[in-house]
Amino acid sequence: MEDKAILDDYFHQKRYEQADATFMTLFAWQYPYEIQWAEEDNVLYIRSGRGKKQFWLPPFTKKDADFVKGIARMHEWFDARGYQFLMKGVVPEAAKRIHDLCPDCYDITPDRDNYEYVYLTQDLINLSGKKFRQKKNNLNHFRNQYIGNWEYVPITEKIFGECLDAEKTWYDQHDTDGEGDEELLGERHAIETVFNNWDALQAVGGAIRMYNKIVAFSIGEMLNDDTAIIHFEKSDPTIRGLYQIINHEFVVHAWSHTTYINREEDMGIPGLRHSKESYNPHHYVEKFDVTLRQK
Predict the structure, then answer these.
(1) Percent of the chain having pLDDT more than 70?
(2) Which domains are delineated in the chain?
(3) At what angle do helices 242-254 and 133-145 cross, to 10 degrees?
(4) Are 215 and 242 in contact (CB under 8 A)?
(5) Do strands 288-292 and 150-154 pair parallel, antiparallel, or not at all (unpaired)?
(6) Which of 85, 115, 128, 171 is most buried (most C-beta within 10 Å)?
(7) Do β-strands 260-262 and 227-235 pair in parallel, antiparallel, or remain unpaired?
């Protein structure tokens, strides 16, 4: 946590749109993804992954720092260990800088599974027009079906435990073979980490209580001056309209002052991609993988 001020200083140098450029993301996922960082000559380096499948994010630079030197230091690191050069989370601006640096040196490949979905806040609040008809139908079904039996509540320390109980219910519904899912367990650890450092991370959350039980919750933060980012959202999939209600109520109560909502990537999961596409994103935060071109 004592590293937060250092990393935030880099992330506030310019307007970043991607989830990788927030301390909460890196801090919450540091153990599941083995995230490490280093700083040298006003360049911030972030690496992740295990064994020979390690990768780096593009260098984050302060004013007058040397982006090119940052790339060179990455090459030194990979070469010293005999690993294949791999940079992930490369947004278009950084991809262009890397291509211009040496047009014939790198293969720059779209990483569609990690494109982040960015929505207009007012679209998520109003759900206007034919393109949101099904969302609004589900929302109205929930409100009519459970009238007087549900409420939206902000997340505070008092309900951390209830939210974790709801997450466990969600996990049990998705761990169908009962053998444990490493990715989902990593996410649980990340959520617990956020709860354990809630105030320091300046996290914001909302939950839906039905029949005196938390059945859905969402956690986010401000990403930049006009965008909120939703890091975690859990909901009982057996209750029609519950996903729509937590999505809608959280945005209305916590983020109505923003212009955009970033709901992160779909990780190539078909159902998640369909869900995120169905909310009609305003644009994507495109990301690319950068590898050395084979000669």
Answers:
(1) 98
(2) 4-114+288-292 (3.40.630.30), 116-264 (3.40.630.30)
(3) 100
(4) yes
(5) unpaired
(6) 115
(7) parallel
